[in-house]
C-alpha cells in the first residue's frame, strides 16, 4: 500500500482490541517504596493473573508487578480460542519428542482448557464462554498442505486423539480436507481474567502497575528484585517471570532461543450467517476464524498474516489482506475493530515453562506462540505446583533448560543467521526520504543532518525524531505504519513513535534526536 494514500475507510484508523474496548479494568498504583512479599509475579497477563489466583487460593502472599497496565500485552490482543488444536503440531512432536511427550502436550493443554471452563463456572463469570468444534483445514487444490494435514491426522490416530477427518466444513469454501477436534471453546479473555483478579484481591493479593522490573536479581537469603532504575527493591521467596519476554535471563540466552512474530485480526459483522466453529488454515497464508457476540450482534474475528516482527515493509497490507479474505468468504457490513498481537516462538515449538535452575527460586513461562490461553493456564498450574512442591506430570516436557537437537539446532542456527542478516542490512540500507517530505500521521526512516533517523509527524504536525538503534542489541528498528511503532527485526523489541518501550526484551527507550 502506498503510505501516502488515505487509510481505507472500511478499516478503523487506529488499532482497537475488542477485548480491551469492552472491559472496564481497575487501575493500580506504581510501586513507590521497597516491598516484601512471598511470591513476586512479573507480568499481568493470563499467566501472571492465573498464577496469582492459584497461589492466593493456597494461602500465599502474592504481588503482581506489571510494567504497563494489566492485560495490555498479548492477552489483551488475542483471538481467544481455548483449544488443544495448535496447527500442525502433533506430527512434529511425535517425530522430535516422541509419542509419550506428544500425548502429554495434548493432555496438558486439554486440562488447561477444562480448568478455564470449570473455574469460570465455579466463580460465576459472565465471559461469553461457548463450546465450539475446532477445524484445521487445507484449502482445495493445495496438495502440499493437504499432505501435511494428512500426516498430522496420522499423528492424531497414532496418539489416540479425539480428532475426526472431514471432507466438508460449514463455511462457504471448499476444502481438500479438515481435522475436526470436538468440544473446544472460545470466550472473552479479559472478562474472565477480571473475575480471577478480583479473587486475588479478595485474598489479599497486591498489584502494582507501571512498575518495570530490571534484569538484576540478588539471591542471598531469598530473592531481591529491582525496579528498572534501581529505585526500589522487592524482596521475595519466589519470583515468576510471566512478562512475555523473560525479565531475567540467568544465562539461558532466551533472546537466541525465541523469535517474535506479529499477527493481525479484524472483528467484522458478516453479511452471511456464520454457523459457528473455530477454523485455522493448515498452510499459509494463515487464516483464523471464530465468532464473538458484541452489542447484540454476532461478529466474526478473522486473524492471521503472521510475520517476524520488524520484517514487513507494509503492515497496512496485512489488514487489507484479511479484509479481502473476510469479504470474499462472508461479506462485510462493517469492521468495528482491528488489532495486532505479538507472540514468541521457541526453536522447538514447545513453550519454556518452569524453574530456571535448581539453585534459584525463579520460574519462567514464555514461548506460547499463538496459543496463550491454554499454554498460559497450564503454565500457571505447573509453576504453582512447583512452588508448592507438588509433582506435575508435565515438568519434563516444558523444562526451560531443555534443548532438542532436532529441530532445535536447525531452527536455532536459522534464527540467529536471520538476526545477523537484519543487523547488517539495517546499518547499510540507503535512505532517500527527507524530513520535509513526511505527511501528518506518517512515519519513516529519513535523512536528517546527514544521518538516518526515525521520524514521525503527528496529525498536528509535530515532529518526533529517534535514533532507531534498538537498545537491546543494536539492530536498526523499522517503522510499523499500522501500529505507529518502531519494531526491531532482530529480537522483537517494539517502541512507540517517540521511543518508549512497548515490548521487550529491550528495557531502555530509544534515544531522542533534536529536530
From TrEMBL:
PROSITE patterns, sorted: RIESKE (PS51296)
Alphabetized GO MF terms: 2 iron, 2 sulfur cluster binding; metal ion binding; monooxygenase activity; oxidoreductase activity, acting on paired donors, with incorporation or reduction of molecular oxygen
Domain Rieske: 430-515
GO cellular component: cytoplasm; membrane
Keyword Iron part of the UniProt annotation: yes
Domain of life: Bacteria
Pfam families: DAO, Rieske
Keywords, alphabetical: 2Fe-2S, Disulfide bond, Iron, Iron-sulfur, Metal-binding
Keyword Protease: no
Protein name per UniProt: (2Fe-2S)-binding protein
Organism: Paenibacillus stellifer
Amino acid at each position: 500500500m502506498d503510505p501516502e494514500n488515505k487509510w481505507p475507510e472500511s478499516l478503523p484508523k487506529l488499532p482497537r482490541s475488542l477485548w480491551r474496548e469492552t472491559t472496564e479494568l481497575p487501575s493500580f498504583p506504581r510501586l513507590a517504596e521497597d516491598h516484601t512479599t512471598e511470591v513476586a509475579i512479573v507480568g499481568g497477563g493470563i499467566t501472571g493473573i492465573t498464577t496469582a489466583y492459584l497461589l492466593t487460593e493456597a494461602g500465599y502472599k502474592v504481588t503482581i508487578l506489571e510494567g504497563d497496565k494489566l492485560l495490555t500485552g498479548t492477552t489483551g490482543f488475542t483471538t481467544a480460542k481455548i483449544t488443544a488444536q495448535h496447527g500442525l503440531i502433533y506430527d512434529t512432536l511425535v517425530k522430535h519428542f516422541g509419542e509419550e511427550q506428544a500425548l502429554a502436550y495434548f493432555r496438558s493443554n486439554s486440562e488447561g482448557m477444562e480448568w478455564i471452563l470449570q473455574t469460570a463456572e465455579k466463580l460465576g463469570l459472565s465471559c461469553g464462554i461457548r463450546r465450539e468444534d475446532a477445524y484445521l483445514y487445507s484449502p482445495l487444490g493445495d496438495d502440499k498442505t493437504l499432505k501435511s494435514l494428512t500426516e498430522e491426522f496420522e499423528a492424531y490416530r497414532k496418539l489416540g486423539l479425539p480428532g475426526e477427518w472431514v471432507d466438508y466444513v460449514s463455511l462457504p469454501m471448499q476444502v481438500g480436507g479438515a481435522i475436526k477436534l470436538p468440544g473446544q471453546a472460545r470466550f472473552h479473555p479479559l472478562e474472565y481474567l477480571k473475575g480471577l483478579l478480583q479473587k486475588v484481591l479478595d485474598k489479599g493479593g497486591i498489584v502494582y502497575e507501571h512498575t518495570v522490573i530490571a534484569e538484576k536479581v540478588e539471591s542471598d537469603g531469598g530473592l531481591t528484585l529491582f525496579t528498572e532504575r534501581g529505585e526500589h527493591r522487592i524482596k521475595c521467596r519466589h519470583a515468576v517471570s510471566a512478562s512475555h519476554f523473560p525479565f531475567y535471563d540467568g544465562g539461558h540466552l532466551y533472546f537466541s532461543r525465541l523469535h517474535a512474530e506479529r499477527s493481525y485480526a479484524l472483528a467484522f459483522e458478516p453479511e452471511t450467517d456464520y454457523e459457528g466453529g473455530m477454523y485455522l488454515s493448515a498452510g499459509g497464508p494463515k487464516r483464523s476464524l471464530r465468532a464473538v457476540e458484541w452489542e447484540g450482534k454476532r461478529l466474526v474475528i478473522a486473524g492471521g498474516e503472521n510475520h517476524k516482527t520488524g520484517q514487513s515493509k507494509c503492515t497496512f497490507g496485512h489488514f487489507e489482506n484479511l479484509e479481502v479474505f473476510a469479504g470474499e468468504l462472508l461479506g462485510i457490513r462493517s469492521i468495528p475493530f482491528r488489532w495486532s498481537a505479538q507472540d514468541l516462538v521457541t526453536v522447538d515449538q514447545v513453550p519454556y515453562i518452569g524453574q530456571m535452575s535448581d539453585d534459584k527460586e525463579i520460574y519462567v513461562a514464555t514461548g506460547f506462540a499463538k496459543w496463550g490461553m491454554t499454554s498460559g493456564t497450564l503454565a500457571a498450574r505447573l509453576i504453582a505446583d512447583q512452588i508448592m512442591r507438588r509433582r506435575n506430570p508435565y515438568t519434563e516436557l516444558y523444562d526451560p533448560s531443555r534443548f532438542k537437537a532436532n529441530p532445535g539446532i536447525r531452527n536455532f542456527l536459522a534464527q540467529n543467521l536471520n538476526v545477523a542478516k537484519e543487523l547488517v542490512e539495517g546499518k547499510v540500507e540507503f535512505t532517500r526520504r527527507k524530513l520535509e517530505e513526511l505527511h501528518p500521521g506518517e512515519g519513516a526512516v529519513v535523512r536528517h543532518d546527514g544521518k538516518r533517523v526515525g521520524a514521525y509527524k503527528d496529525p498536528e504536525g509535530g515532529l518526533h525524531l529517534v535514533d532507531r538503534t534498538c537498545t537491546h542489541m543494536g539492530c536498526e528498528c523499522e517503522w510499523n505504519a499500522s501500529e505507529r511503532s518502531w519494531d526491531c527485526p532482530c529480537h522483537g523489541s517494539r517502541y512507540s513513535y517517540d521511543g518508549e518501550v512497548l515490548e521487550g526484551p529491550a528495557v531502555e527507550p530509544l534515544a531522542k534526536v533534536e529536530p
